[in-house]
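ESCALATION

Customer reports they have been waiting on this structure for their group meeting. Please prioritize. Original submission:
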Amino acid sequence: MTNLAKGAIAASSLGTVTTGAYVGSIYLSDNPTISDHLTKSNYKLISSISNKDHSQLQWETEFESDKDKIKTLIGFAEEDKKKGGEALEKWCSSKLKESYSEDHKDLEGIKSYCVIRDISSQLKRKGKSVLADSDGKWTQTYNKRKDTPKRSPRSQIAELTGEWNSGSGSSPTETEDLIKIKKWCKSKSQAYFYAHEQIYDQVYNWCTEDGANVAEVTG
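Update from on-call: job pushed to the front of the queue and completed.
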């Protein structure tokens, strides 16, 4: 065997050992961060919002949604929404970098305030909820939407057709409409809550008891 061949074999062997040691070190030091764990667990982090203005609004809205508990959790004393959003973002950024443990003292707080929640969760933070299927109060909310066609055109609900008060004898009945509205409400209330989008207001208007009190837009 030539010296060149021997050298190649030696180099190959050394490379294998080195690579194995490197891979082994990764596994030995594998300690996921809280961010890693939440992402793998299908949570969506507020920090994943790339648009700066949308991100700022999301943090401010999150802070406002449960202000007293958040202030206690992150050690923040002020009432200002902008500063509160910034403080919460900073706290979450720091905590998400820490090593994951199911016993981490702030894990529940991180899950509550550092992730993008669904619309039903935001409603709950406001003391509201989507009406139950059997609730008789759907009619009051439905009738209010009929009276507010500028704020609530039928086109906001994917399966509703035509216009309110069209005068057509063949227009859908309330019963037919409510089947579609309830289906839409169930789906949309489970969607992510993004503060910069209008879908939360639409769910509030169409799907809650308080929607019966939402007046028409002026002008």
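Sent to customer with the following note: The CA atoms of residues 58 and 194 lie 7 Å apart.
Escalation resolved.
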